[in-house]
Amino acid sequence: MSHTSLFTTLALAALPLGTFAVEPADSLLTGNDLEQVVVTGTRSPKLLMETPVLTQVISHADIEKADATNLKDLLQQVMPGVEFSFAQNQMVHLNFSGFGGQSVLILVDGERLAGETMDDVDFTRLSMDNVDHIEIVKGAASALYGSNANGGVINIITKQAAKKLNACLDARRAKHNEQRYGLALQGGSSRWSNAFNMTHTTQDNYDVHSDDGAVARTVTTIFGDHTWNFADKALWQPSDRLKLTGRAGYFFRQVKRSEESPERYRDFSAGGKALWTLSDNDVLEGSYSFDQYDKSTWLKSQKIDTRNYSNVQNSVRLLYNHTFGDNVLTAGADYLYDYLSNNKLDAVHRQQSADVFAQLDWKLNRRWEFVGALRYDYFSDHHIQRLTPKLSVRHTPVDHLNVRFGYGMGFRAPTLKEKYYDFDMIGIWTITGNPLLKPEVSHNFNLSVEYVKGNYGFVVAGYCNRVTNKITSGNPYYASATETMPRLPYVNIDRLYVAGFEATARARWSCGVDARLSYAFVDEQAGHKDGQKLASPYLPARKHTLTAHADWTHRFSTLLDGMVALDGRFLSGIDNQEFKNYYKVEEGTITVHYPAYTLWKLSAQMSIGKHLKLIFAVDNLLNYRPKYYYLNSPVVDGTNMMAGCKIRL
Amino acid sequence: MAASCEGVFDGIYDEGAGSDTEVKAGQLYIDATSWNDWYYVDLDSLLELTDKGDVAALQQAQTKFTPWPIPQTENADAARDSSGMYIYWFDIFGKGMSYYERRGYKPTAPQPEPEHWTFAVHRDNVRTNGGSVFETSYTSMEELPASASSFVDKTFTADTWSERDVWVDRTEMLNCIMGNQGIKINQVLSSWLVFNIPPIPPTYTFNNHVFILRTKDGEYFALQLANYTDSKGTTCYLTINYRKIAL
């Protein structure tokens, strides 16, 4: 097969930006991930082993084995260097190898997500029931993705519907009355297909207890919630050269924090995409995406639903890929209209942003491949402009061995919230926006070595990031002598260094054993040039993390597949400097110790015939409970038994 | 297309539904969001306006209330350990509000008040003018008996001294330290709206039972908190139903 036709085939199979991926066979036994087509690193389809940008893939099989409900559950189980903690009001905050939620771009089929709380997207809306695989590219990628792609890109690739009509029901129960129910319907013919997914989850509030002697704020009640998530995706292929897709989704979450006035979160999404194969050498993609994320309060006794936040994003994208020989030229442009209404802002704000970019993927020979990209971004609010480059190199000195080097610039434009926030936080302080914030800019260098042969694979990857003008909440201050309430401003801090490396070994044996061991080291240093200390509400990355996975999959008969898996993660302890007195920063800081912890999960799955799968798991096998339930402590309260089943019709 | 640029399905929310400040006879709407003021209600004068049939004046009197500032300036001449600001530390982020320590006291002038008043509100706190209160199990004013005689033998609770409930000075709130006004409040009537902290942000527990207020002159009034937010969800906008009950 020529390279050109290979490219076209990959494009049609994966679609640029991963609109669809082909659903794998319904089996616990899966093929080699290296045949996986990935799109995130270059915005053009590449085989995983050949892509010049190191891409980590969480495969469909990994997702099935993890039995994760949402992205948070999955990442913290399988990814080293990832930790989730609580922000105020128990909103979930991500630390992704030293980068917070706003500096990691999370995409679904290449599209951005609207809405944020305390700098992070709503992870509960990222249900795993319709996900084919997840592609993760660490390091700055703003030359392809623009703002927010400072610390990396997580691209969730959803499933493509099977042509054959089928339905799937699943249910799972666990501790604290945690329940999950799912429904998937899909079907189609040679030219069209449709997939519908629905997930409903619920969990009760529960209390946790800290020992005496806590030196930082603790949590006493973990708030449950219930969610509904609906997604529909349709594909129509009027000809061999044209694919049209449409999608719509609705998400609802109600948090059980207050019986009288629970908080509600809703998301409405829709979009369309056209992939037109102009010739064997040319593929053009156009898409439109709508995403609206709302927050409201339900006043139960008054039966009033009052909305206090709405973020609406409309985006249009164009992407063109042209192949010549072994090389690919990629060019694209995006437009985004961003609307934010928030009763904690001084007014409603709107922003338009646009960008153009180009990339050349030059394959010198089978040993050397170079990718260079350049992008220009414009933001209408304060007329911010950025030019960002990126360079990636793959060298294959011998078969099965890849050495990759990359440099990328990343940036994050200040959000409308960070510019215009004006929120009296129940008298504690006024969180104050800063219209003069500068964009956060990062320089990322990475080097990796990957060796894959037969049943074994090894990857070692190192990186360093130098971030200037990092945007974060600053230290509290009084705006004037007469003000009695301090202000908590958004500021640019001088520097952030994030450096680290990861090492992963993976093996698969024909006896059905699959094992993976990953270690990550992260060193995160933030501060001002003059040594002024920061009152960051979030814990820096823990320096050492280890994740381990082993499973044994066996086909006992044509009617019986079984799998037993053990997953573990270890996170080292960390001391964090936190202010003694948030009103008197000059009093200095105290050291809050967050101890090391390890969590293990044992799970078993049994497929009986084509129609039934039973799932059992014991999470937190070692019955770990933190001594103090600080905001940054793991939210576990002992062993959690889970039982579920999946029925396929 | 233009509409979708700034959102869809606005209709599922109750934004801007109705007017906050239009109330019916026998109903109050008080902006009690201030941490620094008490608002006084004189039910006798409201009943006089009702009897006169002056709809405009009644509407005004039922929705416009004068703030009476809580004295916060230190006054050394004030009686020690009586009126003033009481500084307490609460274990907000630990064991809860029932764990506390007194950290200081600042004498201030007594709380000023008008010549005639029946009860007063400060956010979730309520005081009576020498009255006492009984909580019924009724949840509607219409369910109440026509005569107050059925309440005469009930146990009414008078106002009691408090120095940890009327939160005023929040300048050290993050350090779990609050400046509270030392003053008598009615704990029974104040239970119509309970401010729960933790969690952070706080939550409210709303009690829509009808309360019977017996004034110092022996009159009986039924009071019910009908709502505690405005149409945008801001708390401590109090809608209160009231009615005099003859003996």
What are the main properties of this structure?
heterodimer, A: 649 residues, mainly beta, Maltoporin, Chain A, 22-stranded antiparallel barrel, 4-stranded mixed sheet, 5 helices, 57% strand, globular, B: 247 residues, 6-stranded antiparallel sheet, 4-stranded antiparallel sheet, 3 helices, 16 strands, 9% helix, 40% strand, siderophore uptake transmembrane transporter activity (chain A), Beta-barrel_TonB_sf (chain A), Plug_dom (chain A)
In short:
The complex is a heterodimer of chains A (649) and B (247). Chain A has 649 residues and is mostly beta strands.
Overview of this structure, please?
- The complex is a heterodimer of chains A (649) and B (247).
- Chain A is built from 5 helices and 37 strands.
- Chain A has a 22-stranded antiparallel barrel. In chain A, strands 3-8-9-7 form a 4-stranded mixed sheet. In chain A, strands 4-5-6 form a 3-stranded antiparallel sheet, covered by helices on one side.
- Chain A is globular and about 70 Å long.
- Chain A has 649 residues and is mainly β.
- The model of chain B has no long low-confidence stretch (mean pLDDT 89).
- Chain B has a domain of 167 residues.
- Chain B has a 6-stranded antiparallel sheet with strand order 1-16-15-14-8-9.
- Chain A: Its main location: membrane.
- Chain A: Belongs to the TonB-dependent receptor family.
